[in-house]
Amino acid sequence: MLRARLEDARFFYDEDRKRNLEDWVDQLKGVVFQKNLGTSYEKMERFSALAVELASQVCPQSVTQVKRAARICKADLVSQMVYEFPELQGIMGNYYAHHAGEDAEVARAIEEHYWPAFAGDRLPSSAVGAVLSVADKLDTILGCISVRLIPSGSEDPYGLRRGALGIIQIFLDRGWQVSLNRLVDKGIESLAGKAKLSPEEVRSHTRDLFVQRYKSLLSNDEFPYDAIDSVLSTGIDSLVDVKQKVIALSELKKQPHFEPLAIAFRRVVSILTDEAEGDLDSTLLKEPQEKKLYDEFLRVREPVRTHVGNKEFSQALERIVEIKPAVDDFFDHVMVMVKDNALRKNRMRLLYNVSTLFSQLADFSKIVLKKS
């Protein structure tokens, strides 16, 4: 039986090598990926655009290779070998690409774009393979969500959870500072005419999926769950920054002064209303404590911005800590909810400005306090 199977494989291999991968690309038009999302050829066209968008940011020197790899990476699905042995998808594409004289990076990316395929699987070793993997997985996620194939319970037939986790792992491995929101929007554009949900709904479900997978990943690394929730609540546009912020906040949580700090910042956030939006008028600052808080805000604002811009999140949090005494004095001596509309709004806006120092790093309302 084994000899017969190997002989079949030899026959399929020899027959397949009589054609190039490019010859099979058009045949993908007859392969249905998902009934509402069209064929594998249509999917290839969608994630090709995503791959080029990503490559232009992370490996612009390889855009040509990415375009080529994206076009032919699914071609082996219609080969005789993969038809008979589906588990060899990508692997045979690599071999056939080498045989056809394709660029070595392109050939390797054809196999690697399926990685990681399961928990603990290897990550793509090449930039081209990593780009293709992210683009293919993200297209699957956005496409399935857009036609209401959203994972629920143990049901996840298209492996969307696994795909989201794989994307996060690749971003962390590569250190890519790329906007996930921008990639998602690009992917949603290509689904026009097929999506059954609005772009806003697709974005919301996609964000929830990535938040769930990222939370699971960080929890497995034994970071404090409230630190994870606090950072994830501020957004996941930069997947790399999320982990670095969690690391920085987790270290800050170990400090003895952290709990009073968290209490102070929670007070700032909890009192804010719609009146907090707008420009602050420094001439309306009457009390010494509110003037001091404003001065402290101005003193630390630029250093915090600089540290955040440099991805130095621990240093940014250290500078923010310096404003705590002024926050405490403000709440001890200044009444925010006064009857004077102009004065009340201005004090709200002062607190809103203070909140901007840490709101991009963590949502302190998610921190679990030991004290009442």
Concise account of the structure shown:
With 372 residues, this protein is mainly alpha-helical. The chain has 18 helices and 2 strands.
Could you explain the architecture of this structure?
The chain is mainly α and 372 residues long. The chain has 18 helices and 2 strands. It has helices spanning 2-16, 21-25, 40-58, 63-72, 80-84, 91-99, 104-112, 127-146, 160-174, 180-189, 199-220, 225-232, 239-253, 258-270, 288-309, 313-321, 324-333, 341-359, and strands at 32-34, 38-39. The chain has a two-stranded antiparallel sheet. Helix 7 packs across helix 8 and helix 8 (127-146) packs antiparallel against helix 9 (160-174). The longest helix has 22 residues, at 199-220. The chain is elongated and about 90 Å long. The termini are far apart. 39% of the residues are buried. The mean pLDDT is 96.
Task: Describe the secondary-structure layout.
Blueprint: H1 2-16, H2 21-25, E1 32-34, E2 38-39, H3 40-58, H4 63-72, H5 80-84, H6 91-99, H7 104-112, H8 127-146, H9 160-174, H10 180-189, H11 199-220, H12 225-232, H13 239-253, H14 258-270, H15 288-309, H16 313-321, H17 324-333, H18 341-359
Antiparallel strand pairs: 1-2
Categorize the overall geometry.
elongated
Count of distinct strands = 2
Walk across the major sheet and give the strand order. 1-2
Helix proportion of residues, in percent? 55-70%
Structural class computed from helices and strand pairing:
mainly alpha
If you average the pLDDT, what whole number results? 96
Unreliable sequence segments: none
SSE order, one letter for each helix or strand: HHEEHHHHHHHHHHHHHHHH
Largest sheet: 2 strands, antiparallel
